[in-house]
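User: Structure please.
Assistant: Input sequence and predicted structure:
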Amino acid sequence: MTSRERLLAVLRGQSADRVPWAPFLTYWWDQNLIEGAERLGEIGFKKAVGADLLMRGHKDRPVHNEYENLFMFRINYGKTKISETINGDKKQLLYETPFGLLRAGYRYSPEGDTWFLMEHPVKAAGDFRILKYIAEDTILEADHEPYLQEQKKNPDALFLPLITPFTKTAFQSMIEFWVGTEELCYLEADENDAMKSAMEAMQRTSMEGARISAASPAEVFLSWEDTSTTNISPSWYESYILPEINGWCEMLHEKAKLYVQHACGHLRNLLPLIGNSKIDAIESVSEPPTGNIYIEEVMKMLPEHITVIGGIEPVFFVNSNKEELEGRTDLLCDLFKGRRFILANADSCPPQVDIDKFGIVSSRIQKRLGLQAPDITVFDKNNRIKPRGVSGYHGSPSNIS
């Protein structure tokens, strides 16, 4: 089977020739220069280390390219004027509308070569009116060409376009980008009508994204929910996030399409709600210390029709030796035998992970089937990774930041 066939088979509950191994390279890929990567690109690198070609929400790219979201539509902002200015280690993002402007502020960190959001655009109840206008002023137009080009160049890969222009649900986008967790706690309680009015406008735009996506050639879609009780309560999730996700799923399922929810944090108190939702897969499931629940519990709490993607926790991935990583691979493959499961390092990959570890997992999966380990000697042992300051991210909290 090709990677695409294997991944789709598991997501659909069909038989596959083996457990898929679909590493999540974001952050590791962005902050390392790999010998030959400029030629190979991310998909070529995954092939070289014997991994499956699951592309989460973005186009293929060599190291020096910025992360580029993959949608099934073009985003037009109407009368909203968006501008960015950089002054030293500070960046400002302005949204100018007929009702006023919103401003986001960032500060650059040379250590991680990353721009950190320091100032959220919505600062008071009146700003929700501007946010509502921005959402209503956003027009989506079906455009399949970027996806078709990527699929044509890499027919064996499975690309997961983002289903919403905000890259996640409206409320989660408020938490991570527009408002911020602390301020949203106050505004949700004190200015609930204003908050809901803006959220519902954003949701209408997202539902249009889901409608266009469902009618497109793509088969599986993703949103960067970053689901975790570190920044949402179960009641918030049930009231504000779950209805939007279920609405997407209803549209997709009518067209036999699937939805994958990125849920990378503390999930213990959310899994009952997620398990009763209409999602098809949960991506980046992680044990402690990144998460707060063990994979055996996840398997018991989720119904069998929901595919679990993940299992290799980031800290473990950094610190494990060859024997420990092989043992973890065996444990997960045995535990999920007969279940819908895609093996992956859970959530983004720390830059400190040794390049050999991707091949260790690939080899172990092949050896379990009695097959010869893949040849992963394409990188020079003495000069295979050099530090490189390339900024990158996954799941930008805003469609234009």
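The longest helix spans residues 192-214.
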